Amino acid sequence: MELQFQMVLAVLFFTESFSETRRIRGVSMSYRRFYRERKYFLCLDGSRLIPFVQVNDDYCDCADGSDEPGTAACPNGRFYCVNLGFRPHYVPSSRVNDGICDCCDGTDEFSSRIQCPNKCRMLGQKESWELEERMKAVKEGLIQKKQLIEEGVVVWKEKQAQLQQLQKMSEDLRMKVEEYRGMKLKAETEKEHLEIAVKSEDGFGEENKLHGGAPPGGTSKVNEGGSSVIHNKEPEEKTQIQQGQDPIKTPPHEDLDKLPPVIREAQSDDVLYHSWCIVGNRTVDRAVDELQKVEEAYDTVQMEIRELKEKLEIDYGAEREFVFLLSRCVQMSVSEYMYTLCPFSQVTQKNSEGSEVILGKWSGWIGPPDAPYTQMKFDEGDACWQGPKRSTVVSVVCGTETDLRSVKEPSRCLYSMELHTPAACRLNTLQRSIHNEL
Ligand code: MAN
Fold this sequence. Notes:
Layout: H1 2-24, E1 40-42, E2 49-51, E3 78-81, E4 89-92, H2 120-199, E5 219-222, E6 227-231, E7 239-242, H3 253-256, H4 261-266, H5 269-313, E8 330-334, E9 337-342, E10 346-350, E11 356-365, E12 375-379, E13 391-398, E14 403-411, E15 414-421, H6 427-437
Parallel strand pairs: 13-15
Antiparallel strand pairs: 1-2, 3-4, 5-6, 6-7, 8-9, 9-10, 10-11, 11-12, 12-13, 14-15
Bound molecules: alpha-D-mannopyranose.
Alpha-D-mannopyranose binds at residues 349, 357, 384-385, 409, 412-413.
């Protein structure tokens, strides 16, 4: 009799605890208080009061599906996986007993045709190992980041010194340009005066004396045929020269020095006139030539200053931790292409035949406000055939090395890359990882 009583009690206890388990199946710890055994159950949206026995009875009573957290009866219900040893999470309750293991503890398949082994412990261990590795990498990255910042300081100083040097060079060249412009103008004016003198009917007048004057006792005329005739003292001593050629004039004393000694020594007026004109023309040509050279050098230096200033104005991170990338390019080969990323400059793609296209030029940082230095944008690249101009977004991720880890083209001519670098490691990356784990 006593044994029978004990058996009845055991059956009652089992039934009771089974029904308790059934009622709270699929309910998270924080919601369990709403599923405590009482006479009635109030749907969580407050819309209906139903007898408590109708909770998880495989029939949907509440509009929000809250009476059936542990069955697939309500289309909008959600099942809570406890996943002890790993991370708890919700799955749509339509997945309960559908023959697929959704929870790592297998609780979503409690009366299924399949067996779900409990993988939570294994997943938890794997995750904490990964987290440890990640933390180690961040710590290591943070140490390297310090060195990169120091490297960046050197690069920054070099660029500043380069700028100063270029500015000095530019000032010197500017003065040279002025000087050469003056020389060119002087040479041209001298040549002009000479031409006027040669063409003038009166020959070498007083005004031309400065520049040579007429040949001793002679005048110059331009003939109908376009040639100049130099009239010397003796008519038979006429010397004809073609228009455009240097006329014969008396060289000014100071210019005599410019002539080669062999000509100076010849002591012949004709030779001296003619030679001086050659020298005059050469002086103009040389001045034009020299001026062109210094002007080109000046323009080049100006361009370099502009480019350098642009580089120095770029945002290189809160501690200028990305400056070191100014002097680095990273590459990755994917299928038939070689991709090259030169941060703060451009991204290129070279095919196996060697032809290269620009996938974008530096545009700026586009990370979210709380982590601005996590994404770089390069746009205005070479145009895609019948498509947009190529552009690239680079995700900048904390890593122990500075290298490209992936290159993709998710949509035609829009590229995405992943750059790993210690410069992207932040203390809160570490804190966030730990926080997520907890
Ligand atoms: C080249 C490459 C590709 C791109 C096509 C578009 O082949 O730049 O990445 O998709 O052009 O025509």
